[in-house]
Design brief:
Elements: E1 35-38, E2 46-48, E3 54-57, E4 61-64, E5 76-78, E6 84-90, E7 110-114, H1 115-125, H2 131-150, E8 167-172, E9 175-180, E10 192-198, E11 201-208, E12 251-252, E13 275-277, E14 280-285, E15 290-299, E16 306-307, E17 312-313, H3 336-341, E18 346-350, H4 362-371, E19 378-382, H5 385-388, H6 390-393, H7 395-402, E20 412-420, E21 427-429, E22 432-434, E23 437-446, E24 449-458, E25 483-486, H8 488-495, E26 497-498, H9 501-505, E27 516-517, E28 521-525
Antiparallel strand pairs: 1-2, 1-5, 3-4, 4-7, 5-6, 6-7, 8-9, 10-11, 12-26, 13-14, 14-15, 15-20, 16-17, 18-19, 20-23, 21-22, 23-24, 24-25, 25-28, 27-28
Length: 537
């Protein structure tokens, strides 16, 4: 099979570039996004992107949700870093009916043939070829190794071909053809035709012509908190941080277990989805584009000071710049585009507070502070939220001062927090569901043993007030955000998480003669610091 005759146009085959073939096994992870570039039924190029999840895998195939149409067989399937991982094959499982774990594959997913399987098949064919065909195929198969060697072992996406390896293979719908590439740079100009289809008809077709890039000028460096981009030095959350006890990461349960966003292919234990930062970790909800939870180790000896009358930090540098995390697809978290568009209501709200992980050496503390400014640690919080939840904001320090004081080495706590979604009451901002509530669970070892406390704060009554002209109006008299101490089992029910027996059994919540809130569930309103903890802890 070969490329057909040119139909029209002056383009040369060399102008179209190439996709490097690789048998590297770490190019895809269950749960990651897949993208397909296709020409269904011979129509103009269409690109299926976003919300196209890799669901199953076999030795030969990848099974994904990505929408395709008839005539798309042979289309290139890319991972979320735009590395070629498969060729589209069929609209349902065909070559394999069971996944890599031996479980039946449902019929509502598309099938693609893995590039690694194609690579191995072509490698096996080398010995049967002769002369120019064998040399061409060998050069193509070796191109990925050459490109990787050029970068000192670091992957590029797409990898840059070497100057010496000028011939490779391009695999298309009709088979294999020869192409040329050279130099150590790839420049791609993409004219894009976008078709929007509603139902069975096409609603709009528009050509997008890239605007010329603005002229760049030199400027002095701005003072800002900078993230250390070498993420290999992050330790993440330590379940054994509190001496003599283990507080594990929460476990999403039920439907939520399927919403854990995986890390990019190639990251360590990518399918588990744990983003490790300095002294804290995060797992993301790929459907909500926010954290399922954050888990933070806090060392009270170097905990930054919080003014308990206001809940505000009295020292420490504030960051103005927020960062994406290259270890996870940007489609799994909301970014500055959202916060700019909804600045009339929301601030970029920390989950793990910027001062909580700031302990250890000066280098570690600064890295931890900067790490809290990742969009993965950010949730839409009403602009009055922080000023209206002073007891919530100061809960960690109050527990440190009044609970975790059993001994010199025990002044440590673990904090879990995250959004609580409720489809019955939550409001929406564009395609983003705004969490009405947030939870916080604090666990420690006090003088009377292992203890934990659960808190919930509700921002619903704030959401009717908008910020106009960039300046918040004076606070209305009714702003008194509900802050509750609740049973950890209740937080587990509402958040869809399992905190483990150790945290549950250590709960300090008392239900006797307590008021109720919401669905007749026991809760204690927090009106003062002393409400955060029962006495004699």
């Amino acid at each position: 099979m070969a490329l057909g005759q040119k139909v029209a146009g002056d383009a040369d085959l060399r102008d179209f570039g190439l996709c490097v073939l690789s048998d590297r096994p770490d190019k895809h992870v269950i749960g990651m996004n897949m993208n397909i570039v296709q020409h269904p039924n011979g129509l103009p190029k269409m690109i299926a992107i976003r919300n196209n999840i890799l669901q199953y895998r076999t030795e030969r195939t990848l099974l994904y949700e990505t929408d395709t149409d008839h005539g798309s067989s042979g289309a290139a399937v890319f991972n979320d870093a735009w590395e070629l991982v498969a060729l589209h094959h069929f609209g349902e499982p065909f070559l394999e009916r069971k996944d890599e774990n031996g479980n039946p594959i449902p019929t509502n997913v598309n099938e693609g043939v893995r590039i690694s399987a194609i690579y191995r098949h072509l490698s096996d064919r080398l010995a049967s070829l002769d002369g120019e065909r064998r040399d061409l195929l060998r050069a193509a198969l070796d191109l990925s190794k050459t490109a990787l060697a050029q970068t000192g072992g670091k992957r590029l996406s797409p990898p840059h071909p070497s100057a010496d390896a000028q011939e490779s293979l391009v695999i298309g719908e009709e088979g294999v053809m020869a192409s040329e590439a050279g130099g150590n740079e790839i420049k791609v100009t993409i004219p894009i035709e976008v078709s929007v289809r509603v139902g069975g008809s096409y609603a709009t077709t528009a050509s997008i012509v890239p605007a010329p890039a603005p002229q760049k000028t030199l400027a002095r460096a701005a003072e800002k908190i900078s993230v250390d981009e070498d993420y290999s030095n992050r330790d993440g959350y330590d379940p054994r941080f509190v001496h003599g006890v283990t507080f594990p990461l929460p476990t999403p349960v039920g439907k939520l277990a399927k919403q854990i966003a995986p890390l990019r292919a190639g990251e360590q234990n990518a399918e588990a989805g744990e983003l490790k930062y300095e002294h804290f970790s995060i797992k993301m909800n790929k459907a909500k584009k926010m954290a399922l939870f954050t888990a933070t180790n806090i060392d009270g000896k170097s905990f930054l000071n919080v003014d308990r009358s206001t809940g505000e930090v009295t020292d420490g540098a504030e960051g103005e710049t927020w960062y994406g995390d290259p270890r996870i697809s940007a489609s799994f978290f909301i970014d500055q585009t959202f916060y700019s568009g909804w600045s009339n209501l929301f601030d970029r709200g920390h989950l793990t507070r910027r001062m909580d992980p700031d302990w250890g050496s000066k280098e570690e503390a600064e890295r931890a502070n900067a790490d809290t400014y990742h969009f993965t640690n950010c949730t839409p919080q009403h602009f009055r939220f922080n000023e209206s939840t002073k007891f919530w904001q100061g809960a960690e320090q109050y527990v440190l001062e009044n609970g975790a004081i059993a001994e010199e080495t025990a002044n440590r706590i673990c904090v879990f927090q995250g959004p609580i979604f409720d489809d019955k009451v939550d409001l929406w901002a564009d395609d983003v569901q705004i969490p009405s509530s947030f939870f916080k669970v604090i666990a420690w070892k006090g003088k009377n043993g292992v203890k934990s406390v659960g808190l919930v704060v509700d921002q619903r009554q704030l959401l009717s007030e908008q910020r106009k002209g960039g300046i918040p109006p004076k606070p209305p008299a009714f702003v008194d955000v509900s802050q509750w101490r609740v049973a950890i089992t209740e937080i587990e029910r509402r958040a869809g998480l399992d905190f483990g027996d150790q945290v549950r059994s250590a709960d300090t919540f008392e239900t006797k003669d307590q008021p109720v809130v919401g669905e007749a569930r026991p809760a204690i309103p927090v009106k003062s610091e002393s409400d955060l903890l029962p006495r004699n802890l």
